[in-house]
Write a structure and sequence with these properties.
It comes from Kibdelosporangium phytohabitans. Keywords: ATP-binding, Kinase, Membrane, Nucleotide-binding, Repeat, Serine/threonine-protein kinase, Transferase, Transmembrane, Transmembrane helix, WD repeat. This protein is α+β, with helices and mostly antiparallel strands. The chain has 35 helices and 79 strands. The chain has a domain of 94 residues: Phosphorylase Kinase, domain 1 (2-Layer Sandwich), CATH 3.30.200.20. Helix 3 runs antiparallel to helix 5.
Amino acid sequence: MTDTVTVDAAPELFGPYRIEELLGRGGMGEVHRAFDTVHERHVALKRLPLLAGREFENRFRREARIAEQLRAPHVVPVHAHGEIDGRLYLDMRLIDGPDLKRLLADGPLAAERTVEILAQVGSALDAAHTNSVLHRDVKPANILLDAGGTAYLADFGIARLHTPDVTRLTATGEAVGTLDYMAPERLTEHDAGPTSDVYSLACVLFQCLTGRVPFPAADSVGKLTAQLNDPPPAASLFDRWIPPAIDLVIQTGMDKDPRRRYPSAGELMAAAAAILTEAPASAPPDLPSTDDHGQAYFVRLLAAVGDTRDSTAPPPAADTAGRDTTDVITDHCPYPGLRSFDTGDGQWFFGREQSTRDLFARLSRQRAASGPLMVVGASGAGKSSLLRAGLLAAHAGNAAPQLAMTPGERPIGTLAARLAPFLRTDPNRLAWQIYEQPASFGAMCRAAVAHADAPMLIVVDQAEELFTQCADPREREAFATAIAHAWPARVVIATRADFVEHFISLSALKPSLGAPFVLGPMTTKELARVITGPAEAAGLELEPGLADRLITDVGAGDDLGALPRLAHALRETWRNRQGNRLTLAGYQQTGGVDRAVALTADSMYARLHEYDRHALRAAVLRMITLLDGGGIARRWAPRAEVPNRVVESLVAARLVTIDRDHVQLAHDALLTAWPRLRGWVAEDRQGLLVRQQLGVAVAGWQTSGRDRSDVYRGARLAAATEWAAGRTDLTPDERAFLRASDRERRRRTRRLQGLSAGLAVLLVAALVAGALALIARNEAEQGRRDASSRQLAAESRAEAEVNPVGAMRKAVEAWRESPTVQARGALLSAPLITYPSAFSSGLSNVSSVDVDPGGGLIAIGSSDGKIVVWDTRTREAVDTGITAKGFVSVVRFSPDGKQLATSDIDRDGNVSASSVRIWDVASGKQVARLAGDLPAIGQLAWRPDGKAVAALSLHQDDTRGVAEWDPKTGKLIRPLAKGVVDPSSVSYSTTGDRLAIGRGDGSVELWDTATATRVSRRTEHADATTTRGPNGLMPVQVAFSGDLLASSSVLDNTIRLWDPRTGAPGLAFRDVRIHAGGAGAAGPSALRFSPDGRTLYTNSDLNSITAWDPGNGTFLGNLPQGPRTGTTTGLSVIGIAVTRDGRTWVAANSDGTVQRWRTNTNWYTDPRASVMSIAFRPDGQEITAGDSESGLYTWNTDSGTRVAGTTEQSGGVLAVAFTPDGKRITGAGNATFTVTAPDRGTKPRTVSLPGRLFVGRGAMAVSPDGRWLAATHQPADTARAAQDFKITVWDAATLTERTTLDMGKHWPLDLTFSPSGDRLLALTSSSGAGVTGSDPDGSTAASMVTWRAPDFSGESRTPLGEDTLNTAAYTPDGKSLVTAGISGLIQIRDAETGAVRKQFGQHPSMVRRIAISPDGRTLASVTAEDSTIRLWDLAGHSHVADLNAHLSPLNDVTFSPDGTRLASGGTDTNVAVWRLDPAEANREVCASLLDAVPDDLGNTGCG
């Protein structure tokens, strides 16, 4: 036998290297595995292609030099580089393992592995940045992993130095890199820096955790648009095991503004590690060296406070083995009641673990320029407890210096008293120094901790006292200046949300207002921790169902200020405990969450003698201060002003807190939760105001050494004297002040009596003074009304999500009180609020509900055999005559709404007495009863065409099962699902060719209706649990959308989605609204999709409808209810329904209450991606919007119905416009422009520019006469994109090209024609899109370029300054051009010269888009960083209103042709149409209030 030897081809030799297999190929060459024959080792050999150009050669040499000089542990080492046979090469260590991209192909990485890999990459980047090297292409493919798991950063092929004296090789404007990971500033030619690599690393971090890139657009245009405009998505939405705290870290790393990102990659990964890794087993990576030791301290502290993923688990139970559990701690209540948790209460502090970590994360990113960190939240949100038991307790655990205070009447005195012990100095002298030189406070703080290893932490709690108690504006300003200059100390200021606007007046705190820490309501899980955590820590037992009842009564996390009331109810429940068991009965004795505070206070009041009751009233009112807007707040009252016996009663009831010298109400919750207190305030409001003003006057008099010039005179003395007459509760100082004022009055009277010769003059003076007093009184009254209006408007905006009806009511009341700017904004925003209304059906034991397609009628059935049809327009039941005899299991309107199908089951189980009937809705007459040998029975569904009804047939032959019936005759058409005799739910697909059946055995079956064959049978619900209901049944509910089939069971806590054609399983997600493991853990018993299939609705909440995103299983929230009075018992949503247009939702409760929610017809949710452009048709009857995923939608503006929709464009519909004759013109991202005739029947005309991309948004314009279409475009090749901008002009009728205007590297950000149409104007920027910068050849950043029409000649370029301008619009008279951009100011310019005539309207960030009303009176503006639309008076240059309804930044805004409406759209994918006439908005809101609460209209005047 002969051996056969196969001889391979001779290996390629390259100098001393033997070339082996290809490892990779890219734009900068090929990388091979090679053997170095000199050093006898395998290497990675990178070679530049032979035909590479000069620029690529320069880049390759630069990569070699950079890689060689970087000697860092996680940068791929370079052995050698040079040139062999005219070909450049780079010899690197061979990393024999996969790259991160290949690893991610198998799905997301575990959190610990992600941190392990990317922390090493972060250290490599920091090493590069230390050597002034930017990588510029950080992505998974450039992260290599060796066999031991060590990570290396590779491919510095497009890296560059970022020292100021380095010439850029990419000064030609190339955007080199990978779009999925490229920072926005690199896409706009703005200066890139180390934070650009941080942005890319944050993108990779997001991908490692979720398995997807942050912006997975279909093409480069979509990716570029998203990187420039869209906020990063929250990683925690994609996997419930990803802690929400990491979202803030990623969002910071991916901030559009480089200045707000982490300064280094190490800091990004340190923050991520603190959240994602176990502590303290895995310490965070070392931070790069910095002069700020506080930053590293807070990162380490963040890691030490525990893993947030464990925060939802209960604390370890006390070891009770071998002893009676009633002996566990029962003599100490773990609930604080109305008081806040303090620093020593950490063992009882639960539920805010995540917020504590978020707070430390924010502190770790604070910089000197950031100012103090402002914590903002509603009263009762738990700010004080978070700061004291969370932040300060953790800080104190390290023996670190800290200072906590509330401002009080003398904030600087308090601050000095707290700081003096650290400096060992006299507090009074220190207070004087702070007052006179507040900017030196930082030096004082530095000296105070000179020998400490940690920075000082200063916490200013209840900072609203600066305005409610401090009467000296100068001291208030000095205090704000001092804490703003406290660096390197970290300062945290906590204030109520309704006081934020007051802080605007403190200029030193302006940076703090830019990015406050908002403490929102707790989630259901966090509330459960608040209840169960302290109990378990104290060895207490909760009766099953108590926690769920408490969470339900407190609003399941929707009530922003419920925590103190919850804590008080828990404390009172503890007082009513049985042994160590907290019971439902004990809770009910407290009066419930909403009444427990009032019950405690009233019980204390009732125990007092009559005299002490009067003393209590006077004492409590001394602890109240009146606010400018009519509200009330707590104040510290001196102990001397409150009788001891009253203090003792208040302390025993835990209604006050005291220190050595002062007493204060325990919480703001008392101001609203104790009706008796509110009544006292209302009865003596004027007296309170007099006493408050008297207190300020007395303090000033004492400070001045009792100077006579500071006493009361005239009307103020008369008012105070009248108020004080007969009172026994005046303080000695108040009495002394009034006596001194009266002495001064008598002295002046004696002097006046000796001046009789001047009587006439005094008379005239008195008359003048009287007139002035009248004017002053009128002004004061108007000021009060204005303040009240602003307060109501602010409350309206704050309550829009949690109490929509209350928000609408307050918007109307605010406008009625005074037409302030804030009130106008609230009123114009109110019509877009989705609000609930409710009515009583008169039924008990409701079993089913449905709403007709138009939302006009609601049918309700009960287990008592009754059916009610309710007319939503007349708000009363309709006498239809529709009846039933047994248990009504289903009521269902036909697809056209003209018929109603009902199913009732005989209570005795008699099939013959049961029925499915079809009724004519208009007449109430029975059309048919579905029956064969036996009647149809049970669940039913209408076929989408309305020609058949599916219901159970009980024939004794082989047709037994679910069948189709004729609704006109009641006869059997044909069997569909033979043998299925236990349907608990049936549903047709939207096309009618599939029937889904939820069965009583826990299965889901899908049937083909054409062939009557079963497509699939799924048993996942039944397999998930062994629990069964009565008779061993497990009913399943089913519902179809166009793309999905959904199912649920009350015995399975999982909602499951299926393919609607095949039944193949899709996404499955837990119903997180129902507490798994609790007594009621289950799934929803009702499912409905929205008409567009984008939202799934369930009855998961006891009192509302729950919304889910079926795409990823995300809980979207409950439809808002608004506050409830008292506790809620006996309510449970039984059935839900949605109208055909998706604008009305209905929920029927078991007690017969039916809730209905309606959204305004001027709020459109059809777009599926960011709305890029919107336009009204010339007659104003329709509005069209284009989105970034090529969606084009048109709605009727009167009815709100969608009249057209398509996704045929490519690259996104970036611009929409209309010609005067109604032709619609669209611009797509692939530079395709389409003209569609008004009748939509004619085939559209299109023109495309191959190899070009349309810039988008404002870069398309149509001349006023509709003759010309102009648009900006650039090369699709990103290497040339920023160097070859062009504007093409076409004849709009024929799309024949008129001319093309070369713009070179000057980007036309906005195009517009003059009102007369004789001029085309382009607003250009040489620095890209919307960021500051100057271009390399020294030209200004912004210019306006004009051409004469119709020949488009005579180009004229006018510089407009160094700030980039994004948007421009002519005034209707053509005399002025209005511009705006990065400065945040609106500029009115001369239309010819471009000279600025007027600047006004400072915005919080860059202005993205402006629009001017047709009459030229109003300007609307939107910014890049918030969702507010600001309206301005162009003539008066004043602010008119703020419109709020959108959830994220806007891209476009436009006025209707008649100027009465305004349309907006942006990144939240919604389009809104606003009515701008307050009277019209008022009528619309009043109509909604009459629908929602006809008997509770308040002070609206709507009746």
